[in-house]
Amino acid sequence: MLDLLRARLAQGTQTIPFPPDEHEAGFPERFRGRPLIQPDAAGRAVLDLGACLFSPEEAAAYTHDYRLASSTRDGLASSDDRLPLSALDLRMRKLLGRSLRLRSVVAGSCNGCEAELVAASNVVFDLARFGVQFVASPRHADGIVITGGVNANMRDALERTYAAVPDPRIVIAVGACAASGGPFRGSKEAGTGVPPTIPVDLWIAGCPPHPLTILDGLLRLLGRFEDGGRRQTPPTSERVGAAASDEA
Amino acid sequence: MSEPRVHIPTSDMFGRMRNRRAIRLDALPLLSIETLRAAITVAVEDGWRIVSLFGSPESDTLLRVIAVLADDERGHLAAASALVSERYPAIAAQCAQAASFEREMAEQCAVFPEGHPDLKPLRRHPPDHRPCAWSAPVIPFDRGAYPFTPFQGDEVHEVAVGPVHAGIIEPGHFRFQAHGEEVLFLEIMLGYQHRGVEPLLENSDRARAVYVAESIAGDSVIAHASAYCGAIEALARSHKSARAQSIRGIALELERLANHVGDLGALAGDVAYQPAAAFFGRLRGECLNMLMTISGNRYGRGLVRPGGVAFDIAPDMAHLLHRRIVKLEQELRPVAELFFGTESVQSRLDGVGAVSREACITQGFVGPVARACGVHRDVRHDHPYGVFRYVQIPVATAWAGDVHARALVRWVEIRRSLEFVGEQLRALPSGAVRAQCEGLAASEIVVAIEEGWRGEVVHVVVTDDEGRIRRHKVTDPSFRNWTALALAMPGNQISDFPLCNKSFNLSYAGHDL
Fold first, then answer.
1. How far apart are CA A207 and CA A214, in angstroms?
2. Smallest Cα–Cα separation from B364: which of B81, B71, B66?
3. Does any CB of chain B come closer than 8 Å to the CB of residue A19?
4. Hey, is the C-beta of A163 within 8 angstroms of any chain B C-beta?
5. What ipTM was estimated for this complex?
6. Does the predicted TM-score (pTM) go above 0.80?
7. Which residues of B touch A175 (CB under 8 A)?
8. Is the dihedral of CA B214, B380, B193, B495 positive or negative?
9. Under CATH, to which class is B197-512 assigned?
C-alpha cells in the first residue's frame, strides 16, 4: 500500500489543460498538424485534408495547428484559416446536457485511429472530464464514432449499429479512411469512407488524428469553446525535417 | 497420415534463402505438388517452421504455390514451389501448420485443397489472385453465413460476441461453446477488417505503396514498413547506411516499448488494478511521443522509406532522447514492481490461458506468445538483419505459457529494448540516412522478415520479367497467433476471456489485411 502511494506521488498529475498552449501540447518540432497549403488560382485549397495522410511527402511544410475537424466533408477541403465547424444546435445541446455517450464502430481500419481514441481517454488527455465517454451498447449511446473506410465486410454491421442508436443521434467520422478511404483508396474491398446513407455531424482529419485533434473536434461540436477556444494561434513550424526536404 | 512417406533430405528439395536477399525465380526449386507436400511435412517434423505459404498465378490456368520455411535454431531460410491446377492434395492433411495458410490460399486464389481438415472461408472476400481462366471459386465466400463447428450436449450453451465490441476494439466475431462458466470451445471468425491490402501493394505506384504498408496494422507501422522496405531494397539492390539501420532499429524498439508498456497497462486494467493501468497508460504515451519527436507522428508514420529513413536524429536530439529513455526506465520500474509484486494481481494472471510448448511448436506460433512457452524464437536473433547483425538483444523467454508468462516476457523485453535504444542513441554511426532505391530486378523473389512487437512480420515479393511486382504476400504475426488464443481458452472461465485476449493482444487488421 505504501509503495502504491509512493508511486502515485512520484507519477504526479499528468493531465494537460485544454486547450493547451504550445508548451503544454508538447508537440515536437517535426509534428505534422495542418499542412501549409498554397491555394490554386481560383483560391481553392489544393489539398483535401480528408484524403491527406499527413505524410512528409504530401505537403512542403506542416504547421503545429492540430485543429483539423469540420462539420461538413467539404469543409475539410477549405482553404480558410479555420475549418468550418458549427456546434450542435441548442436543442441538441440541451438534450445532451453535460454528457455525451458514444459507441465506437470500427469498419475497415488499421487500428491506428482506435488507438488514438483510446489514448484520448487516458490520464493525459482525459476526455472524460468533459463528460464524453465511450459506452458498451448502441442503446446507451447518444451517437457513434466511425473509424475505417466502411469496407464491404463491415457495412452491414455499421448500418445495423447506427439503426440501434436512439434518435436523435450524432455521427462522428474519425480519420482519413472514414473521410476518403485513406491509404486504401482504390481498393475494391476497402470502401471510400462513410456512405451518404449515414449523415455525419463531425469529420476529424488525420492518419491517425492526434488525441488533441479529437478533443478539439468533439468539444467544439459540443459548443464548449464558442470563440474557437484558442488562447493564441499556434505558430508555424519552419520545416518538417531536414531529411524530408530532399524528397518532398 | 495414411500414405507411406519417404524421408526426403530437405536441403535437396528447397532452395536456400536469406532474410532480405533476393534470388532469381528460376533458382527457386519447382517440385511436383506431391513432392512439395512431402518435403514440407518432413521438414516441419525435423524442426523447420512454415514462414509463408501462398499462391501466385503463373498463367491463365496454373497457380504457383510457394512455400518459405525457417529453421530458427540454425538460422536458415529455404523456399520451394509447385504448380497446381484447380484442385490439389492439401498440405494441411499432413502438416497442421499449413492449415490456415491453405484456407487463405483457397480464398485468395480460388483453388481447392483436397483433404484439408478445416476448410472454411477466412476473410470472406472474392478471390483476388485467381488464374483468370479458372471457373468460379470452389469455396463459396458467403459474407453472411459461416459454418461454425456445432457443439451439442446437456446444458452446453453458445455465446456469440461481435463483430461490434463493447469497447474501442476492432471488429471480430467470437463464438464460445460453454458449460456454465467454463469454455469448452472457442471459434474465432475474422475478416471484418479486410481492406484488400495485398492487391494494393501490388498495384499502387511505389510512392503510395509505402503508405499502405504503414497501414497494415496501425500499431506495427515500423515493423511492416521496415519489412516492406527490406524487400523492396533487396530487389532494387539498395544499401542502407549503418546510420539508417540504427535509426530503424531505434524506431522498431520504441514501437515495441510503446505496445508492451500499453499491454501491461491494459492487463492491469482487466484485473481492475487501476493505478498500474493509469501509470502504464501514461508511460505508453511517452514512448509514442519519442517516436513523434523522431518522425513527427506518434506511431512513426513517415519515418521508414525505401533506401533508409526520411528523418535523421541529430546529436542534440539523440542526447535529449537518451535522457528521456533514462527517465522512462526510472518511471517504469516502480510501476512494474507494483504490478508484478501485488499478490491479488498475480493470482489473477497465474495459470490463466495457458498455451503448451507442444502446441506452439506444432502450430508454429511466433513472438512473445511463443517465447512465453519456452520456445526460443526471435527474428532479431535467428535471422538477423540491419542493426541486429551487429547488436544482439538476448531472447526473452518464460516457460508457463500463461497470461503471467506473456506479461513477464513483455516486461523483460521492455528492459532490453530500453537498454538497446539507450546504447544506440549514444553511439549513432555516421552516414547519410537515405540511399537511392529505384527499379526492381526482374523475375526475382525475396523474403523479408522482421521481429515486430507481436512477432514475425513477413513480406514476400515476387517480380515479373519486367521488374513489376507480380505478387506481394504479407503475413502478420497475428495470422499465426489467433489460433493460440482459440487453443488457450478451453477450460478457462468465459469471464477471463478479456484478460486472455489482452495478453495476446492480436491485430484484427493485420490478420484481415
1. 12
2. B71
3. no
4. no
5. 0.91
6. yes
7. none
8. negative
9. mainly alpha
